[in-house]
Each structure stands twice: as structure tokens, then as C-alpha cells.
Amino acid sequence: MTMPRLIPEQHEVLEMLKRSGAYREGHFVYPSGQHTPHYFQMPLAFRYYDTARVLAVALSRKLRLEKDVSSALPKVSIISPSPGGIPVAFAVREALSAEQIYWAEREEGKRMFRQYVNAGEVHPCVIVDDISRTGTALQETVEIVQQLGARVIGCAVIVRFRGSAPRLEVPGDEPVPILSLVDFDAKWYDSGDACADCKQGAAEEHVRF
Ligand SMILES: [Zn+2]
User: Fold this and answer.
1) 167-168 and 176-177 strand pairing
2) Which of 20, 41, 136, 166 is in the most buried spot, having the most CB atoms within 10 Å?
3) What pLDDT sits at residue 5?
4) CB atoms within 10 A of CB 97
């Protein structure tokens, strides 16, 4: 048996996600009415400790190559834009030996940190997430990190949809590249009319979000 490389190739990551059930191929319909031939349910990859570790170590290797990140360690804060990214944040924190973890939540439609997270206590931040479809969650997280007076020094996700922004805009600072293990070509149909799978009469699976 060979040991997995520390930064696996994109197709190896996709294979891992497929094996764990996190990457699914089929004929999916969203509540919005959009149709798509693929679906990511990323927490399914993080239910297996070994898969989670390989993915987190790969992300941490990519992050360590960024000078801003490697020179700040271990006084770094790993930030998740939402509770969904918490397993990624904990696993990356371990791989980087970073000192802090924070995650944002949505309250009344607004992304925010928990009360009593205070300006001045937060180390320079690395934002991580399992998947970035539009980049909006990552970019909103930059804003709330800056409100705490902390710097954003890195960003990494397991899967990034191509077509979304490749970097974070950081007002008053350099843009930060969004590192990823997989750059995915997402296919969307606005309705069933244009959908290739509908034309072939493939059974639909309805996904919740
Ligand atoms: Zn369809």
C-alpha cells in the first residue's frame, strides 16, 4: 500500500469525495427549480476521520506555501463562514497547529460571530470552508473579520466552483487568493426545459438546498 501524497491531485480528491458520498452524480432538482447533474453534500466526507484528515492536511500544505500564513503561525485564527465549515476548521487547525478557531453564524439573515468575541483577541485569520459555490460566504466573512480589527491572511476551500471569484477582496489590504483542492466546472439549468437529463427522461432527485 502506498501512502497518499500530501497534496493529492484534483481527480484523486474528487474520487475521495465520490467514495464518501460527498460528491454525487445524477439528476438533481433544487427548490429554486434549477436542474444539475451533480451535487455536493460535503459533511459526508468529514464523517470518515481518515478522509477528513487527508483533505485537511492537503489544505494545510497549500496554506503553508503562503508566506503570510507560514510566517504568522502558530498565532493564527482559523475561521469558518458558517457552522457547516466547523469540521474543516478544526481539522485544518490541527494540521497547522494554529491557536484559534472561530465560526460565524447567521442571525436574522446577517452573518456574525458570537457575542463576546472581542476585537484585539483575534489572531490574523485564515478563512476555510468545505465548498465555495459563489464566493459570497467567504467575502462576507472578510467583512466581519475586519470589523473585529483582524487581518485576513489566507483562504482555502476543498471545492471551488469555477466562475466564482478566485480571490477575496480585502479593503485596505492585498487581495487574498482562494486556494482549493478542486476547481469544479458546475453545470446548471435554470429549469427542466433546457436540462439534458430531463430530455433523456432520467428520474429526478429533489435536494433540500
Ligand atoms: Zn432535469
Assistant:
1) antiparallel
2) 20
3) 60
4) 10
179-184 β-sheet, strand order: 100-103, 77-80, 125-132, 152-161, 179-184
Distance CA 111, CA 144 (A): 8
Cα(196) to ligand 1 centroid in Å equals 6
| Overall average pLDDT of the 154-167 stretch | 96
- pLDDT, one tens digit per residue, over 44-79 is 999 999 999 999 999 999 999 999 999 999 999 999
Contact of 80 with 103, CB cutoff 8 Å: yes
The residue type found at 120 is G
Say if CB 17 and CB 45 are below 8 A apart.
Answer: yes
Which residues is 148 bridged to in the sheet? none
From the CA of 103, how far away is ligand 1's center (Å)?
35
Write down all domains in the chain, each with its CATH number in brackets: 10-206 (3.40.50.2020)
Backbone φ, ψ for residue 127 (5° rounding): -90, 130
Find the 206 Cα to ligand 1 centroid distance in Å.
10
Cα(143) to ligand 1 centroid in Å equals 37
Compute the distance from residue 203 Cα to the ligand 1 centre, in Å. 8
Strand partners, 127: 79, 155
Residue partners of 61: CB distance under 8 A and separation at least 6: 6, 7
